[in-house]
Amino acid sequence: MPKIRYYISGHGLGHASRSCQIINTLRQRHPRIEVDVVSNAHAWFLRGFLDPAVPIRHAVLDLGVLQRDSLRMREEETLRAYRAFLPEKKRRVEDESALLRRDGISLAVADIPPAAFAAAARAEIPAVGVSNFTWDWIYQDLAERHPGYQDVLDAVAADYRHASLLLRLPFYGDFPNIAQVEDLPLVARRGRRDPFAVRALLQIPPGKRVGLVSFGGFGLDTFDFAPLEKLRDWVFLTEQGLEG
User: Are 181 and 166 in contact (CB under 8 A)?
Assistant: First the structure.
């Protein structure tokens, strides 16, 4: 019976959200396939949206990007933190590869911790990425403004080169270190409420277009909404009350 280990980045909730949808759909269509999850994403989110039959193990395999808020990144701190993480990452790759072999895992899937691909390669099993970006693309951009972190870029690139395949989601960036790429459609949760009922509940006038301004629940205090006032045919929703 095939066994899949699904590695999910804990940076934000987007990686976990789409991964839950993919795993749940896979389980529904192919119930004989065993799937477990390794992630440092918020446990409350995984418990709320992931098939409860899927085992979850907490582990940190990537750092994502450190942020001051939703709109401002701590760029050089991110690169320094990943450099400090490299010795620990090496140990975790060794540990993960041993667990992959011990548990008889036949495929690793990652969205999109680079160390997961290195662990799969060491365990001699294929590894598939599912994402619209990889961290080497992000870090390369940061390193152009903060030189001196080639060791970080080299380490992340080396891990991603172990990927057997990248299933590329829409709105993607570059994938400089993964050779084989195939496109997927957008992955998202389906709304359960009737859209007209939602409009009535929020008192949105008929004929108005609706936009959601969302930054994960923080970072809106200094956001300038004034230009949006010019769009008279739109109603914009935010996650917190705004004055004016």
Answer: yes
Q: How far apart are CA 67 and CA 192, in angstroms?
A: 33
What are the two backbone dihedrals, phi and then psi, of residue 211, each rounded to the nearest 5 degrees? Answer: -125, 140
Q: How confident is the model at residue 231 (pLDDT cuts 50, 70, 90)?
A: very high
Percent of the chain with pLDDT over 70: 95
In SS3 terms, the chain reads as CCEEEEEECCCCCHHHHHHHHHHHHHHHHCCCCEEEEEECCCHHHHHHHCCCCCCEEECCCCCCCCECCCCCECHHHHHHHHHHHHHHHHHHHHHHHHHHHHCCCCEEEEECCHHHHHHHHHHCCCEEEEECCCHHHHHHHHHHHCCCCHHHHHHHHHHHCCCCEEEECCCCCCCCCCCCEEECCCCCCCCCCCHHHHHHHCCCCCCCEEEEECCCCCCCCCCCCHHHHHCCCEEEEECCCCCC
4, 25 Cβ separation under 8 angstroms = no
Look-up: residue for tokens 């911790």?
A: 113
From residue 197, how far is each of 191, 193, 241 by CA, in Å? 12, 7, 22
**What token pair was written down for 235?**
């109603």
User: Sorting pLDDT into bands at 50, 70 and 90, what band is 71?
Assistant: confident
CA dihedral 62, 63, 69, 73 (to 10 degrees): -110
Are residues 27 and 54 in contact, defined by beta-carbon separation less than 8 angstroms? yes
Q: What is the pTM of this model?
A: 0.89
